[in-house]
Amino acid sequence: MQSNQKLINSNKKPIALFQEWFEEAKKSEINDPNAMNLATISSDGKPSSRIVLLKSYDETGFVFYTNSNSKKGKAIQKNVSVALNFHWKTLQRQIRIEGNVSQISSTDADEYYNSRPLGSRIGAWASLQSEELDDRSTLINKVKEFEKKFSDNDVPRPVHWNGYLVTPLLIEFWQDMPFRLHDRLEFRREKDDWVTRKLYP
Ligand SMILES: Cc1cc2nc3c(=O)[nH]c(=O)nc-3n(C[C@H](O)[C@H](O)[C@H](O)COP(=O)(O)O)c2cc1C
Questions:
Q1: What is residue 173's three-state secondary structure?
Q2: How far apart are CA 138 and CA 131, in angstroms?
Q3: Ligand 1 pocket check for 129: Cβ under 6 Å
Q4: Considering only Cβ atoms within 10 Å of each terminal Cβ, which end of the chain, N or C, has fewer?
Q5: pLDDT at residue 10, as a whole number
Q6: What pLDDT does 4 receive?
Q7: Closest CA to 34 of 72, 88, 96
Q8: How far is the CA of 131 from the centre of ligand 1 (A)?
Q9: Distance between CA atoms of 83 and 49, rounded to whole angstroms?
Q10: For residue 152, how far is the Cα from the chain centroid?
Q11: pLDDT single digits (tens) 92-107
């Protein structure tokens, strides 16, 4: 296993440090370096988590796309507090992010949706994400139905398919170190700045 055991560069602001680690992850991880765990809280206070893909990020936060009628979509409508977690196994690193989620503009969602392959755009129409599916053939038939409906290749974005921005309030960088004396650096948002502290492993 590749070892990357050097202390975290604490001279950088968190998004710059995220960029540094993410670029390294793109080189080291075989599949989906942009995969992140998204944890949400339901209206009755129950946590739930699943993997989604990070599609863009900048100083304002981290963007993913999903079906607003899904389990996570419904949770987000009731409670904007979410957490993200990246685990890059070969680098022995994790990044934990906590913050508030909000829907991105329809113009931005359209732009990304239109960049997706035709099959994925059709899939967004065909899948009632998180609803009970009686049989896989029902899904396949729905795909065929929408392929026929949008046979001219002009597939508009379904209103229920949206982009979400996680505005970070806390970002923690975690680096594996020998004997489990891991290095942890936390950034907490305070007004317009980030307050930094190290944490015990
Ligand atoms: C590697 C990977 C990437 C995924 N990316 C997404 C994604 O970007 N958006 C999404 O809605 N679901 C994605 N999924 C599927 C989700 O994990 C999940 O099954 C789905 O969104 C339904 O979740 P929910 O019922 O909690 O809403 C991905 C799954 C994996 C394993």
A1: strand
A2: 12
A3: yes
A4: N
A5: 86
A6: 55
A7: 88
A8: 14
A9: 9
A10: 32
A11: 999 999 999 999 999 9
Model-level pTM greater than 0.90? yes
Is 146 strand, coil or helix? helix
Ligand 1 and 130: CB distance under 6 A: yes
Ligand 1, atom 14, lies closest to the CA of 52
Q: Report yes or no: 40 and 47 within 8 Å, Cβ to Cβ.
A: yes
Q: Select from 3.40.50.300, 3.10.350.10, 3.40.50.10420, 2.30.110.10 the CATH code of 14-116+162-199.
A: 2.30.110.10
pLDDT above 50: residue 1: no
Report CA(130)–ligand 1 centroid distance (Å): 10
For residue 21, report the distance from its CA to the centre of ligand 1, in Å.
23
Q: What is residue 30's three-state secondary structure?
A: coil
Q: pLDDT: is 122 or 153 the higher one?
A: 122
Catalytic residue numbers? 180
pLDDT tens by residue, 50-80: 999 999 999 999 999 999 999 999 999 999 9
Query: Which residue out of 49, 53, 64, 104 has the highest number of ligand 1 atoms within 8 Å of its CB and is therefore the one to mutate?
Result: 53
Residue 168's SS3 state is strand
Q: What is the mean pLDDT of the chain?
A: 96
